[in-house]
Amino acid sequence: PVFWGGLIFFILSVGSYYYFREQAAPGYLELVWLYELGGRYNRTLGNHEGDYWFYYRNLFRYRLPMWIAILPLGFAAGLLSKNEKIKGLSLFLGICIISYFLIISGASTKLEWYDAPMFPFIAILCALFLFEVFNFFIKTNFFQNIKSPLPAFLLFCL
Asked: What is the per-residue DSSP string for 27-67?
C-alpha cells in the first residue's frame, strides 16, 4: 500500500504540475516533448552531430585512453571476486556503464560532455582492478623480495 500510495501521489503531483502549466501557457507540453523528451534524442540540435561510435572513439582516443583499456579487467576482477558485495557492485556498475553508453550513443545530438556521468563508474571499476593487483602482490610478498624500488614505483604510477 505504501508503494501504490507513493506512486499515485507522484503521478498526481507531476500530472497536476504539467496540467496547470499547460493551462497557464498553451503549447507548453508540445515544447516539453519537442525539446526535453524527444528533441535532443531523436534529432540533432545545433550542429552537434556524430555517428553511433562518436563516444566510443572519444573515450579511446583522448578522454580516457589508458583507463578504458583497464575497464574490462576491473569488471572481470569484480565478477571473479569471492566477495559477493564486490561481485554485485561490479555487475551493477557494468550494467550502468553499458546501458548509459548505449543510450547516449543512440541519441542524435552528440556533445562531448554527455559521457561524463560514466566516469565515476569507470573509475570505480578501474580502481577495483588496481586493488586486486596490489592485493595479489601483498599476499605473495612480492615487494619484500625486490631490492629495487622501481617495480613498486611503476605500479604506483598507474
From this structure: THHHHHIIIIISHHHHS--TT----TTHHHHHIIIIISHHH
